[in-house]
Specification:
The chain is mainly beta. Among the domains are: 87-143, SH3 type barrels; 179-287, no CATH class; 289-318 and 363-454, Immunoglobulin-like (Sandwich), CATH 2.60.40. Helices cover 3% and strands 58% of the residues. The chain is built from two helices and 32 strands. A nine-stranded mixed β-sheet has the order 29-32-27-26-23-22-28-31-30. Strands 2, 3, 5, 13, 16, 18, 19 and 20 form an eight-stranded mixed β-sheet that branches. Strands 1-11-7-8-9-10 form a six-stranded mixed β-sheet. Strand 2 (22-28) and strand 3 form a beta hairpin. The longest helix has 7 residues, at 87-93. The N and C termini lie far apart (75 Å).
Length: 455
């Protein structure tokens, strides 16, 4: 594939960055960011235009707000210009105007541009001679200047009226798409599955079209409502890369409205087309519990087989007493455990929701290999209209070399009045639609739960 060089006399094309006196960046976990920049801008006396060209490519122009520090300035009009220069647009603007082409064999062609279809370029020379050049043979296009209306960077333009010529600081704020963040957690369980080492990270993904240098960074956790509109399609490169940070306490957490705000205690640069990872909190120890659950009411096909899997969950409480206590933003939690040789192995992952302090976190890791469950209905008695008695038998087999307790979860017909008339194990009515039994099963043995329900 041939490479092409584009030359503009006295014009350079470069990627843009947000370099300002002060940059503040607040990122929400629904592809939204709030950018606030403070910069000195010059205003002429009377009515004139002021340009601000360091903005994100995916900016929402309707969200822009400018606040000059000095008095005597009134904003009359606001425009967002994003017709960025590229080869196709230059060729369109130069139809009928003179350009130069340099081919790979060193020939220089100069003339008025008659047409360009992406494959061939047609020029009329000063003598009237018409030449057609294969675009694949062109290594350099040369244009005299940048046509009016085309810009190098997305730009905000204000029409402002000032009572005098002055330079003053202005705070410019706007919302932009293309900024997102999510939390990720790593847990290492000890050999007895009773304690774990937990660390948290945040991953920030910037596809907004701007780099925010040395920004004050804040992250908002919570479900912020947005009005959904059809987005304007604007191309962005798909080339993120990872930056790691040291696992030290770097975020301060606080309640904010009905959400939680996490503020980084240092400045950070968030580059365009970058995924950056920052430690949310250092590794901490907490107690945990491995919980086996069996839900016998499965799909029709599996129920015909009579057997279902036993789910393995890891539970811990997000409390200060247990070494935690920071409200945990939603994210993926990966769990590891050391094998007999001391090497960490991955044992499962799950998504956790926003979790306040003192709430329980349950992580589903997979299905048990050495524990099986079998559920069947053993008796049905029709006791009259809207009245029935059913008996169920649930068999749990434990092939492990340790004793276990399995939580058997049964769904109940909550739209009826019901009660369990007989059970060989104690049960807990969790809700109108759910009842739980705790069934202890010794090593390499089986236990059978039998209960009768009337409704």
């Amino acid at each position: 594939m041939k490479k092409f060089a584009l030359t503009l006399t006295a014009i350079s094309i470069f990627s843009w960055h947000v370099y300002a006196d002060d940059v503040s960046l607040t990122i929400y976990n629904n592809n939204l960011g709030l950018v606030k920049q403070t910069r000195s801008l010059e205003f002429d006396k009377g009515i004139g235009f002021v340009r601000f060209d360091e903005v994100a490519a995916l900016i929402d122009p309707t969200s822009v707000h400018i606040s000059p520090a000095a008095s005597g300035i009134e904003i009359l009009e606001q425009n967002y210009q994003y017709d960025l220069v590229n080869t196709q647009k230059l060729m369109q603007r130069y139809l009928g105007k003179e350009i130069s082409l340099l081919t790979e064999n060193g020939d220089l062609h100069r003339g008025s541009l008659l047409s360009f279809d992406g494959k061939y370029i047609m020029l009329r020379g000063s003598s009237g001679e018409i030449t057609v050049t294969n675009a694949e043979q062109v290594v350099d296009y040369r244009f005299g200047s940048l046509p009016e209306g085309l810009i190098l960077k997305p730009t905000l333009v204000w029409l402002a009226e000032s009572d005098k010529k002055q330079k003053t600081g202005c705070e410019v704020s706007y919302l932009t798409d293309g900024l997102n963040w999510h939390a990720e957690y790593v847990a290492v369980v000890d050999k007895d599955d009773k304690n774990l080492d937990l660390s948290g990270w945040v991953s920030i993904d910037n596809r907004s079209g701007a780099t925010y240098k040395d920004a004050t960074l804040k992250l908002v956790a919570g479900d912020v409502h947005r009005v959904t509109e059809r987005p304007v399609a604007r191309g962005r490169a798909e080339a993120p890369y990872m930056l790691e940070a040291k696992a030290v306490p770097q975020f301060e957490e606080e309640a904010f409205f009905e959400y939680h705000l996490y503020s980084l205690t240092r400045a950070a640069t968030v580059a365009d087309n970058e995924t950056k990872q920052i430690s949310l909190f250092p590794e901490t120890k907490t107690t945990a519990e491995k919980v086996y659950t069996f839900e016998g009411q499965v799909s029709y096909w599996r129920s015909r087989q009579g057997k279902s899997k036993i789910k393995v969950n890891l539970e811990f409480v997000n409390s200060e007493e247990r070494g935690l206590g920071m409200p945990l933003p939603k994210g993926k939690l990966r769990v590891y455990k050391a094998d007999s040789k001391g090497q960490l192995q991955f044992i499962g992952e799950d998504l956790i929701d926003h979790t306040p302090k003192d709430e329980k976190v349950r992580v589903f890791l997979g299905e048990a290999f050495d524990i099986t469950g079998e559920r069947k209905k053993t008796d049905v008695v029709d006791l009259g209209e809207w009245h029935r008695r059913e008996t169920y038998e649930i068999k749990i087999k434990n092939h492990k070399d340790e004793d276990i307790v399995v939580t058997v979860i049964e769904s109940t017909p909550g739209w009826f009045e019901w009660h369990i008339t007989r059970s060989n194990y104690e049960f807990k009515k969790v809700s109108a639609y759910r009842v739980e039994f705790q069934v202890p099963v010794k090593s390499d043995s089986e236990e059978v739960l039998t209960y009768t329900i009337e409704y």
